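Subject: two folds for Thursday's group meeting

Dear M.,

Sorry for the delay on this. The cluster queue was jammed most of the week, so I only got both jobs back this morning. I'm pasting them in the order they finished. Each block is the input sequence followed by the predicted structure tokens. Could you check whether the formatting survives your parser before we put anything on slides? The first protein is the one we discussed after the seminar.
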Amino acid sequence: MNRSGGIPVKKEILKISQSSIAQALAADYFCIYFVNVENDKFIEYSASPEYREFGFPSMGDDFISFSRKNFELRIHPDDREDFLQRFTKENIIRSLNRKKTFTMTFRMLFAEGPVYVHLKVTRMIEKEGHHAVIGISSVDDQMKSREAAKRAHSESITYARVAQALSGDYFSIYVVDPDTERFMEYSAAREYEQLGIEKEGEDFFNLSRRNMERVIYPEDKERFLGTFTKENILSTLERGGSFTMKYRLMLNDEPVYVSMKATLVEDEKGRYLIVGTNNIDAQMKLEQEYQARVENAKNRAKNDFLANMSHDIRTPMNAIVGYTNIAKTHLHDIDIVKDSLDKIGSSSHFLLSLINDVLDMSKIESGKMQLSVGKCDLEALLCRIEDITSMQAQSKELKITYDQSGVKHFRVRGDELRIEQVLINIISNAIKYTPRGKSVDLIAEELSTQKNDEGKLFSRYRFVVKDTGVGISEDYLPHLFESFTREENTLVNRVQGTGLGLAITARVVELMGGIISVKSKQGEGSEFTVELDLELDPEKCAEDEGNDLAEGAASAPDEGGQAAGNEENAADLTGRRILIVEDNAVNAEIAKMILSQYGMETDHAENGQIGVEKMKEAASAADGESGESSGEAAKAYDAVLMDIQMPVMNGYEATQAIRAIDSEYCREVPIIAMSANAYDDDVRACLAVGMNTHIAKPFNPEDLIGALKKYLR
């Protein structure tokens, strides 16, 4: 009985044990499937609750297709392609035949996030060997631990190598705890070791300051101690800035430039201050040598410029002084006096052009030059240029031509004064450097028209100035638009000038958004090209289209308030009373003499304050408040000529004070600025405080009389 009955009992116990073992092992798996390898039928043996949330079927006919279709949606995107390539029936059977298992690891997307899983396929131990068991278990903790260890190892190797590589370029590197100020030297060069500075310890900042007092170059000590403080460094770094400073250390009794850089590093272990000192002595010395060369070159250029300016200024001044003396000694010979005055006037204009060049260049380089954009008649502008430059060309017996047939639209918006300045500079330069009997040509063309994003019409204009003059050498051509330069050429050096004309021209073209270029061949001539994009005046486009330009011939006041038009039809100035507010007695006398020639009466105020007081008296007379006879009314002034720079009260303040007087007369009386402050923003400043217009000193008498006739109608 025992023997015969023992077999069934043993089998039963074994059956129960195997079942328990299988169930116990299955608990470590997300799921287990039985699969018939030959026909691919499958049945789920067990599955965890998390796995069942996927909603996969528990049995089916085609396990491979089932897995590829359903798993694809639940596998992390980065692992999906690898899974689909490897998880095929052919790969699985090949692996089972060779090593009895097929495994792969990937991430599945569970509700709580991606989890690393391990899929294992094992052939069942049976005679036929038709079945396989497929289990999917979690290996998330192992994989993440392995990745973290690998990453830490990689980072430690990388950081160590990077730190070692970088430390070789530094005098010293310190790691500092910014809270406790404990520090440790990470590396130091041999030269730095000789300074005898501590390698580790506490109180980093105070200790460093004491050490620096001993080893720093004396001239840098105060600046270093004022900058190198814990509060200053940390506040700079915590604001997201960078802290660097340069100073000199005394090494072997010689000052050596170093650069200190402090960086704040934070990680899971805390935060650290990395302070590195880099030897930049070689770089600083190279930079100093370069700066010295640049400074020497600038000084040479300035010295050359001053030498040229000294010569060029003394030449017209010599003529002015000389012909003044000639006129004085020949007062009774009208022809000699007239000829002397003409030559004095010509020399004065040349001297003024030299001064204007220098002032313009200063204005450009300080960034204060501004454009004054307004209505611009290119036809009138080109006619003025022809009038001015044709006389210059005739005096040198040059053939000069002007061609504007390629321009379709003449009415544009731009800075008319600056466009004229650019073209006259280029043409005058061509005339200067073109020998007698040769030629100069100005060609104006309109290339294309298009609308911008705002719907405004713009045309590109090209202005070409060609000459058959001396040309420009290939070596000098790249320096043509530089300030204070002239070509070293015998013929060129005989021509007077500042060497600023083309530099100013190039800067003004650039300010207008244009392009300037030059082609030249020495001995054959030069060709300058200026291209500008100018907005078309929509009101005048139609007139230009029909070539109806007659209306444009009638001149009008410019936007700065300068007088224009036919003066003969303007008001008679005889008997008009003008107040001259001017602190310079000579300038006041010149204005008085010019005005008296036109029958005007004048009064003089030595500064702005006196001018205001005189205008208060004039206001009483003009408004009839005094109740006196009509003779009192004669004290009223018809206009005021106002200087700007004066003691006690300047012209701006005086104008504002006059306009603020409770009098209609003071609000309306014309106030004309006559000032050596002649830049665009000076003109705007005058208009802003209530002046009517601006005339620059030294002034042309016709400009002054024209302005008075305009405002005293």
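Second protein, same layout:
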Amino acid sequence: MGKLYIWGWWQGNNLGDNWIKKTLATIFPEAIFIDTGVQEFEEDSFVVCGGGGLFIYDVISPWDRLENNIAYGMIGLGAEFPHISQKAVSVKERARFFYVRDQYSLDCMNIKGIEQSYDITFAKPLDVVPVETVNFNKLFLVWRDGHELIRNEQFNNYIQPGSSYEEWKYVINNNFTDIVEDDFQTGDDNIEERISDCGFIISGRYHGIVAAIQKGIPFLAIDICPKIRALLHEVGLEEYCIKISEIDKAQELILKAKNNLEEIRKIENAYCVKANDILKKQIRKAKLEILKVLSPLRLIHYGSYWMKENDVVNTMSDDLAKECILKKIDLKAYEKGTDIRIKKCTQTPNGKLCLLEHQKIMEDIKEFGADGIILNSGGLYLEEQTCEFTKDKGIVSVGISLSDPDVYPYNGKLYAEKFDLFYTNSKYSLEHQYDRQKVNINIMPFAASLVHHFYMPEVEKKYDVVIVAHARDDRKKIVEKLSTICNVGTYGSGWENSLGLVNGKEHVRAINTGKLYVSFAKTVAGYNNVKVGLFEAMACNQVVITSYMEELEDYFEIGKEILCYKEEDELYELIKYYLVHDEEREQIREAGYHRFLKDHTYEKRWNVVLENIYMQKGYL
């Protein structure tokens, strides 16, 4: 098994960096810390570039020349000045995770479209000082005159000529009776001990201000580095950040900060809570990515692919194979010659119910050395003795239903509670059908695979509206009226002017032939559902129109990323409007596509499942 390394500025004797290291050591107790002098990494390791402003001016070595076979991630990264190169973008593209501590740094790195992060110390914040014990008379002062910085032209221009330490000390002495001075030059990480019972902080060091925010005490920041102002801009307390030359503002701001303690604490607390919440999610993602490299899961995926290459179960399993060590087994439940692993296959009013034979599953597990097994839709379930065996051996069993709520009475209701983890495609089923006291149930919404569904710019937009679905009476009525106002292309069975059944690449090409894509939400049993075709069309960079469901708001911003109608007449009006407003249509297309890429690939869905499997096995 490879090792986890955390690479950073640990040799600089800086209290802020030491605090970062202490925090990371708590989060990743198994990690080995290495400093920036290390330029070569073991191929089977995982390297975390750990916090701090390491990319001050641009990407630094060795991150500008890493080989593709090195697994790495970035956490708590920061910049000070705009990067000249696009190297940070390249580093981001190859990283398993890439978390930058503020929007300003992202802008400096020329990186767009990713969630920003926060200074990593907010993951394990200092204790808040009780309001009644805040001692305004005791100051923690971190003076930094910037001499070591102004040798650099960019810092010299930023800092500007300033007031002297003596001038600042004069103002400070007039406002505080007890002053603790600290230059942050130490090998220690005991920032909480150093601050002790101080009730006010004045600091030219970034982490001095971070400490004030976490402790819930007032402060005055000396704006000697862009990162300090960037932090306070995001916190919402930028008025308490002044240049070293603005000594004339210090007296008034010190008094104002003392007089506005409650308001400042409220703002500081809100920032701390938000930072901590987001960091927790990002750290979970980071730990998952590290585990996938250093301790990859060995999983067996059972499924049947009745739509061949583009079958949803097949596309899901292909994307899963990129996230773990996977053995795919096609049970051929929809073919004449079903796989011998199917012991009994029963036809239900809306699908199949397929019992898998115990001995065959045992052979698969033992031969492959499986950590878990996944039974993906098709009414697949296990014999009792198989369930007992997997539980006894710590092999995680995962069941997935992709046709809820229609099939619930004939499938999930009968066997969902037998699985360690069970997933439904339907929010309605999650909330109204499954007994969550008995079933470890979660939602796994549909998504799409970029390997199987993708934008084909070379394909002519022959149709104003394209529909890829089988005909039903309610759908035929809509298409008949649509055909009177625009050019409609219909693929699938049952249409009067069907363009044929399409699978594989022809399915992708069909979706790409329209300016707009209509996704019908109603299921065979009459439920409204967020269909897989909606996401497949998004993957093809289409503007999607579907009937409104509250659940859609969990996935897209309606009106900006997807179009929805509540009444049938509204559908026709939407289509007429967006066919003649090309620019607005393109804005929705672009926004929807970016949202899809960000949140709705099967890679994203599977990572949630893998995280839960790791948790079941005690890794997380």
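Two things I noticed about the second structure. The mean pLDDT is 95. The radius of gyration is 29 Å.

Cheers,
T.
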